[in-house]
Specification:
The complex is a heterodimer of chains A (511) and B (198). Chain A has 511 residues and is of the alpha+beta class. Chain A is built from eight helices and 27 strands. In chain B, 36% of the residues lie in helices and 18% in strands. Classes of the chains: A alpha+beta (511), B alpha+beta (198).
Chain lengths: 511, 198
């Protein structure tokens, strides 16, 4: 009897434990998923630190991060707090707390410090907020998964694609000379870019091309490389370096119709007069390489003027949604592709998109892309809620919410305009651009084109060029997307935009 | 039935009930949170502080977005005017949230909550909306512009002390309302949008 009750209490403990475990599993489902790596580049070399996802937030292990940034001289770990001695500085962290004490300063993070597998974990924004206080010089682009510490100057590159008679030629222009080595792996080509660090503006380029599908940049293991996915398996691959290692030409051609076997030196018949093997193609400014690539060869000296297309929203920000489930972010991306093609067909402009694929750069980053590209026009594409019915295509220029606070009696010339005042100098030209667009839209049948309006559309505020937002109405929860998804409609709109840009006469390239 | 089996059965039952109630609360949070907002603006507006029985009836001009979103259309409504300007600001906002009587568009969803109102000496009204303002809101350049100016124009038209308006969400300065309209600065009334004759 005594024995059996003893056994029962054993069972009871087990069952209660099981109950608690079940509850925990119910409330906190699997939280941790390993994703990828964060790379620390420094003059000493590189360190790779694995990123862990804890509840949708990216985390890095604390001590490996600090060791990658500099050297940890010691640490004191208690159950709930940790003190790390880092050079002359002292870092104090508390478990579950969003604040980190760095020396005397207190730095706030967006997510709390946590533990995983017995390691102290810090959220990814630790790299943004704390690491710059620990190292002499750092360069980190928010959202990227690499940081440069100390005297490291990362290289970058731009990509363009053009047609050959029986294939395609991809040219990659590097900012620094690069020694490449190519390996074929599982039907893809991996181009190793030597051992210098890279900070690409765009990581993935997708092409609508029968020979080249995709080019992606990858340095997850600390070794920068380009991965090229050919359009089909049965293509010949030729690559050559020119311009002292600054340009890489890759030809993918159908077998049998190949150029000279030692490399793509044969001048392709489609090239323009200036095209030689060392001539990189259009869209090769470091500012935002165009993903939808224009197919013509232009030497860099006569770089075509840039039209920056900004498909609104992206990523988690889906924008508006129609009753039948069409998302604004997808729709404007489709339209952006068509406008790109229509503009490329004029052979007078290159197109720089502010986002490629389903990314969501913040509004300032979008403006920065336009400003670095010296855009001659900035078109932000939207398809939101606009009244009842449609289709209605409206054009907006920026309207400041309030008049300038200070109006100097004599206009003082500053070397730089304040970031949120940049558009003010372009308002007149922006209105002209809006009129040019509205004029073209009004000519289309079946579309209402109200006169250009002014609205405080934030994304236009810091664009250093004529800038407008185009609203393709109406995508709203009470209506189906209807004609907005129609190929012909999108094509008409896109061609109208291209005509308007030509009429606007921004044809003169800026330096 | 042995005692052990009974205990096991009871515990299994408890686990099942606990998990079901968790799922139920999850479903409730997911599907039912927005409900009940329809009356709430009206209830909040008719609260004692905002509708003093002794207050004067005042004809208030409210600007609502037109059906086709081409501009703002004025609508006149009588409110028992509160004593102080911040309370009057609240009254106007709640009346806007309550919605138009003539079938124009709603500038703000019915579940929107006015968290706080401040009026500074220089005539800047700080209005802190809850995030509910984005629930069921159809984002777009025009719809967001009209929402902002519906608030700004209505306040400035009825409360002379309000010269400019700064809109906050959940106590914070935000970049945009719902992806489009710039909320980084204060707004002055926009007479152009209100010109549309009905």
């Amino acid at each position: 009897m005594i024995k059996s009750s003893h056994r029962l209490s054993h069972y009871r403990t087990l069952i209660i434990l099981g109950f608690i475990l079940t509850l925990i599993l119910l409330v906190c489902p699997a939280q941790r998923v390993r994703s990828d790596n964060f790379v620390f580049y420094s003059p000493r070399g590189y360190e790779v630190v694995p990123i862990e996802m804890i509840g949708n937030v990216k985390y890095l292990p604390l001590l490996p991060v600090l060791n990658a940034v500099g050297s940890v001289s010691g640490w004191q770990e208690k159950r709930k707090s940790m003190t790390v001695y880092f050079g002359k500085l002292q870092l104090e962290l508390r478990m579950g707390d969003k604040k980190v004490k760095v020396g005397k300063a207190e730095v706030a993070l967006q997510d709390p410090i946590r533990a995983s597998n017995g390691q102290w974990m810090v959220p990814l924004d630790f790299v943004h907020f704390v690491v710059p206080r620990l190292a002499e010089r750092t360069s980190y682009r928010t959202g990227s998964e690499r940081i440069f510490i100390g005297d490291v100057k990362p290289a970058s590159f731009a990509v363009s694609l053009k047609s050959l008679p029986n294939g395609s030629r991809l040219s990659v222009q590097f900012t620094n000379p690069v020694r490449v080595r190519t390996v074929s792996r599982n039907g893809r080509y991996v181009v190793f870019l030597g051992n210098q660090p890279f900070e690409p503006l765009e990581q993935a380029f997708r092409f609508e091309d029968p020979y080249v599908t995709e080019l992606t940049f990858d340095d997850q293991d600390g070794v920068p490389k380009l991965i090229l996915t050919p359009g089909s398996a049965a293509l010949n691959f030729y690559s050559s370096e020119t311009a002292g290692g600054r340009t890489l030409l890759v030809d993918l051609v159908k077998p049998g119709a190949a150029p000279s076997p030692q490399g793509p030196t044969a001048s392709p018949p489609v090239s323009t007069g200036t095209a030689g093997p060392a001539t990189p193609s259009a869209a090769s400014k470091p500012a935002g390489p165009a993903a939808t690539v224009s197919r013509q060869a232009v030497s860099p000296e006569t770089l075509l003027p840039a039209v920056v297309l900004d498909p609104g929203h992206g990523g988690e920000d889906t924008g508006a949604r129609s009753r039948d489930g069409v998302l604004e972010k997808d729709l404007v991306e489709q339209v952006q592709d068509r406008v790109s093609a229509a503009l490329a067909a004029t052979h007078a402009y290159r197109v720089v998109p502010t986002r490629v694929g389903d990314a969501d750069p913040d509004l300032d980053a979008r403006d920065a892309i336009a400003n670095v590209a010296h855009a001659i026009a900035f078109l932000s594409l939207h398809a939101g809620s606009y009244g009842t019915g449609g289709p209605r295509v409206a054009v907006y220029t920026y309207a400041f919410p309030a008049p300038p606070a200070l109006v100097p009696s004599e206009p003082t010339r500053l070397a730089f305009a304040p970031w949120d005042e940049v558009q003010r100098a372009h308002l007149e030209r922006s209105r002209q651009l809006a009129s040019a667009l509205e004029e073209q839209f009004a000519k289309l049948s079946g579309i209402t084109a109200p006169p250009p309006a002014e609205a405080p559309v934030h994304v236009l505020r810091s664009v250093d060029a004529p800038a407008v937002a185009i609203e393709l109405g109406n995508l709203s929860p009470d209506l189906d997307a209807g004609i907005l998804t129609d190929v012909n409609f999108q094509q008409q709109i896109s061609e109208a935009i291209a005509r308007a840009i030509e009429a606007f006469g921004g044809g003169t390239a800026k330096p | 039935m042995s005692r052990r089996t009974l205990v096991v059965t009871l515990i299994v039952l408890a686990v099942v009930i606990a998990s079901l109630s968790y799922l139920r609360s999850l479903a409730w949070r997911t599907f039912h949170e927005i409900q009940g907002g329809e009356e709430s603006a009206h209830v909040r507006l008719s609260q004692e502080a905002l509708q003093p029985s002794t207050g004067l009836k005042q004809n208030v001009t409210l600007y609502f977005p037109a059906d086709d979103e081409s501009g703002l259309i004025p609508e006149i409504r009588a409110l028992s005017w509160a004593a102080t300007d911040p309370d009057r600001i609240r009254q106007v906002l709640l009346a806007l949230i309550e919605g138009p009587t003539k079938g124009h568009n709603r500038p703000l969803p019915p579940s929107t909550d006015v968290r706080a109102v401040f009026l500074t000496a220089d005539g800047t009204a700080y209005i802190d909306f809850s995030n509910d303002i984005l629930k069921g809101f159809a984002p777009g350049i025009q719809s967001e512009t009209l929402t902002v100016y519906s608030v700004v124009n209505s306040l400035a038209a009825n409360i002379p002390a309000v010269k400019k308006v700064r809109i906050l969400l959940e106590g914070r300065e935000v970049e945009t309302l719902d992806g489009h309209v710039d909320l980084t600065e204060f707004f002055v009334p926009n007479p152009v949008l209100a010109e549309t004759p009905n």
